[in-house]
Design goal:
By secondary structure, the protein is an alpha+beta fold. The protein has 2 domains: 132 residues, Diaminopimelate Epimerase, Chain A, domain 1 (Roll), CATH 3.10.310.10; 133 residues, Diaminopimelate Epimerase, Chain A, domain 1. The chain contains 4 helices and 18 strands. It has an 18-stranded mixed beta sheet that branches. It is globular and about 50 Å long. Bound molecules: the ligand N[C@@H](CCC[C@H](N)C(=O)O)C(=O)O. Ligand LBFN2T5F binds next to helix 2 and helix 4.
């Protein structure tokens, strides 16, 4: 079987994109391919796989899979790339697109330069701090600056859902953190029945933050769009940042701009096509 794909990245968070308007992939095949092709030594190499499918009631449906083959409900960096792919490849001709995801429909405003999308702003919907909905197993209703005990020590954490689960911890420095040791301790902690994405954050000023992320199912990535939104939501709830203002979040692969309100979170950032390819799959 020959599979056409496009490699895209948003702030260095890279996925293999499949045009589902031309190629149909079942859930089982997508899970297997995500695991096989994401491997940076034995596959194409990526943080996961994204399929852009036709759907009623929206311009497309995004299905996203982490590098271990697990399906994610939402991906902030991928949704900007999906919108760019659709405009640049003529699937849509308008500058506002609506993409359905497992966490609902999201509207994306596109910036066009020389007939191609250079940047996209996504209305990500409201941040949710209710633990039972994230989900987090706890007797508390919310974890805001909560003392969380792990096998490697106590951390002050804030739990947030951006359609997918996040745990945010503010620290004095993040450069030297060994995330390959720390990340799995959070990801596989019994408090998180669906595992968790964890963000480690330094506050430089109310409108400038730096973060590193350990993503469930993919490990440390260069950026996480939902993670950056969760970080700003947590920064506002903890009194580090103001609501209603654009906050710059520095990630290993670039910057994202996030604006938090109680009703919704906006995320603005780059979307880049890296290359196209095709592979012969031995099925
Ligand atoms: N990189 C993403 C999030 C991808 C999904 C996540 N690992 C999960 O399983 O929830 C982003 O940019 O938001």
């Amino acid at each position: 079987m020959k599979l056409e794909f496009t490699k895209m990245q948003g702030a260095g968070n890279d996925y293999i994109y499949i045009n589902g308007f031309e190629t149909t992939l079942s859930q089982d095949t997508a899970t297997r391919l995500a695991h096989q092709l994401s491997n940076r030594n034995f596959g194409i190499g990526a943080d996961g796989l994204v399929i852009i499918d036709p759907v009623d009631g929206a311009d497309a449906k995004m299905r996203m899979y982490n590098a271990d083959g697990s399906e994610g409900k939402m991906c902030g960096n991928a949704i900007r790339c999906v919108a760019k792919y659709m405009y640049d490849h003529g699937i849509v001709t308008k500058e506002k697109v609506v993409i359905d995801t497992l966490s609902g429909k999201k509207a994306i405003d596109l910036v066009i330069e020389n007939n191609f999308v250079s940047e996209a702003t996504v209305d990500m919907g409201a941040a949710n701090f209710v633990l039972s909905e994230i989900p987090v197993k706890s007797a508390e209703a919310e974890w805001i600056d909560y003392t969380f005990t792990t096998s490697i020590g106590d951390y002050q954490v804030t739990a947030v859902s951006m359609g997918n689960p996040h745990l945010v911890t503010f620290l004095d420095e993040i450069h030297d953190l060994n995330l390959t040791v720390i990340g799995p301790v959070f990801e596989h902690h019994p408090a998180f029945p669906e595992r968790i994405n964890t963000e480690f954050v330094v506050v430089h000023s109310p409108t400038e933050l730096s973060m590193r992320v350990w993503e469930r199912g993919s490990g440390e990535t260069m950026a996480c769009g939902t993670g950056a939104c969760a970080v700003v939501a947590a920064a506002v709830r903890n009194g580090h940042s103001p609501a209603g203002e654009w906050i710059t979040v520095h990630l290993l692969g670039g910057d994202l701009a996030i604006l938090y309100n109680d009703e919704t979170v906006l995320m603005r950032g780059p979307a880049v096509e890296v290359y196209k390819g095709s592979i012969e799959l031995v099925v």
